[in-house]
Amino acid sequence: MSSSPWHHRIPPLLRRHVLPFLLLPLLPLAALLFSASAPNPFVSSFGCVPDLAISFFLVPSSLISLSDRSFSPEVADTDIWSARRVVDWRPCVWWENASLPALPAKTNGYIRVDCYGGLNQMRRDFCDGIGIARILNATLVLPKFEVAAYWNESSGFADVFDVDYFIQQTQGFVEVVKELPEEITSREPFRVDCSKRKGQFDYVEGVLPALLEHRYISLTPAMSQRRDRYPSYAKAALCQGCYNALRLNKALAAKGSALFKAIPKPFLALHLRFEPDMVAYSKCDYPGLSSTSLDAIEAARGDRKSWTGDAARTWRNRGKCPLTPKETAFVLQSLKIPTNTTIYLAAGDGLLEMEGFASVYTNVYTKSSLLTGKDFNLMHGNTKAALDYYVSINSNAYIATYFGNMDKMVSAMRAANARYRTLALSRRAFANLTALGLEGVELADALWRSHREDFVMGRGTALPDCFCESTL
Ligand SMILES: *[C@@H]1O[C@H](CO)[C@@H](O)[C@H](O)[C@H]1NC(C)=O
Ligand SMILES: *[C@@H]1O[C@H](CO)[C@@H](O)[C@H](O)[C@H]1NC(C)=O
Ligand SMILES: *[C@@H]1O[C@H](CO)[C@@H](O)[C@H](O)[C@H]1NC(C)=O
Ligand SMILES: *[C@@H]1O[C@H](CO)[C@@H](O)[C@H](O)[C@H]1NC(C)=O
Ligand SMILES: *[C@@H]1O[C@H](CO)[C@@H](O)[C@H](O)[C@H]1NC(C)=O
Question: Which mean pLDDT values do the consecutive 10-residue runs of the chain (472 residues) have?
């Protein structure tokens, strides 16, 4: 897997017949939105599972090929971005133009947020931490971005984000300091780990006593919180801190900008998520894959056995299974995205089965194809992820195949910047429609209708609490 061809610009592998609808120019257009997305793909509701290895949910390749067909006439005249939006998501007025109560004169203590995982997961937790610090009338110190063995990574917060800008933009929302007061600097914080707490978690009950006692705590936010109980100034701090105060530091922004400039315009940033760990975590079975891919997935699987039999089919129909690159290409074609569209792959190096995509979409760029040299080779996972983030929030269009942490963050920032050509593909619609036996043009038409509806109605979006629906 070491010298994958996706490190380079993908040459036109196969020139397909350009379908009539593909000749239409991309109309400059309205808005975005995504389809329903399951809250947590890793949490299942299955108790026990019959151990039947039947792969009836496999979609044979021949059913998802469109090379020599065209769409039915009534849907053949526009691309997905041309659909007129009825509902947009915008930053809510209550935080963008909030009139805030004064910050407490006396702090209840100092909080450091300890963040783990990939860049966007760490950012998500830090954002929660900003709100928590405000609820507790505490002072925030800069977070600790953990060195994650998995990502082979050493970037801290200041290596990614602009610290001074963050402090400036959060003024009045929450108190932030770069340095701890002297009487505390010598101490390690008292550790409060909320990440494993089950159920809804109340920070005033759960954390304030420790904060008052120790004066300096480190905190890893819980997955689920009683945000409904947050006073509005705490929610405003979270929203402002997360969506108006975090920008890449100068060095990374310059790299991001250089990368952005190198990509031909206009372009679509595509976040494909078909990597061994993702497939293994999803517990989905993909019997049609190459043996190289299957080996890589098996190696990442650990004790996570994939679902089989009825359970596997139900799981898939609930939209739990990542789209393969080939399926992704089919859905994009169904959305009338021309196969010569310039596509920036916002993804790591571990993608599997890319041939299935690159044989249809032939203008694909990656960061390693565009940025070369020592500088780039020395970049770590977090800083590389930051480049994908930068390009994705600035691209003409953004499509996610899986609505994960990065996709939520990117979609939110795009909404904040009024970039509405944003869409998450519906894994559920794809699974359901293929399970019904649809194929070829029929399948493409049905996918078009379901994605168009989602896009127009702004339905099922998982944009976080800081965004409000706005009817056009
Ligand atoms: C894609 O093909 C169409 C029709 O041939 C052409 O007008 C358009 O310029 C092409 N776009 C790109 C990015 O090559
Ligand atoms: C928020 O305030 C800004 C600046 O005063 C103003 O331009 C904008 O219209 C306000 N937004 C809303 C939604 O009221
Ligand atoms: C924070 O301060 C506000 C008023 O300044 C007060 O109403 C609230 O109870 C305080 N909360 C905590 C957790 O100390
Ligand atoms: C982690 O990074 C170091 C230095 O950047 C490198 O030498 C090492 O091979 C990397 N390990 C893995 C597992 O990628
Ligand atoms: C998917 O299929 C299930 C059962 O087959 C059905 O209940 C559900 O409504 C379908 N969902 C969509 C989005 O089509």
Answer: 37 31 30 29 28 36 55 58 89 89 96 92 94 96 75 71 97 95 89 81 90 95 74 94 96 94 97 92 89 92 87 93 96 95 91 94 91 75 90 96 91 92 94 95 96 84 80 82
**Torsional sign, CA 173, 177, 181, 185:** positive
Pocket of ligand 3 (CB under 6 A): 104, 108, 136-137, 204, 208
Contact 455, 85 (CB under 8 A): yes
Q: How far apart are CA 355 and CA 217, in angstroms?
A: 49
Q: What is the DSSP string of 399-440?
A: EESS--HHHHHHHHHHHHTT---EEE--HHHHHHHHHTT--H
- The whole-angstrom separation of Cα 256 and Cα 339 is 26
Which two structure tokens, joined as six digits, stand for 60? 């044979």
Nearest ligand atom owner, CA of 2: 4
Alpha helix ranges (H) inside 263-366: 276-282, 291-301, 309-317, 325-334, 355-358
Alpha carbons 452 and 341: distance in angstroms, whole number: 19
452 in helix, strand or coil?
helix
User: Is the pTM higher than 0.85?
Assistant: no
For residues 153 and 381, the answer to whether their CB atoms sit within 8 Å is: yes
Is any atom of ligand 5 closer than 6 Å to the C-beta of 347? no
Distance (angstroms) between ligand 2 centre and the Cα of 240 equals: 14
Does ligand 5 have an atom closer than 6 angstroms to the CB of 451?
Answer: no
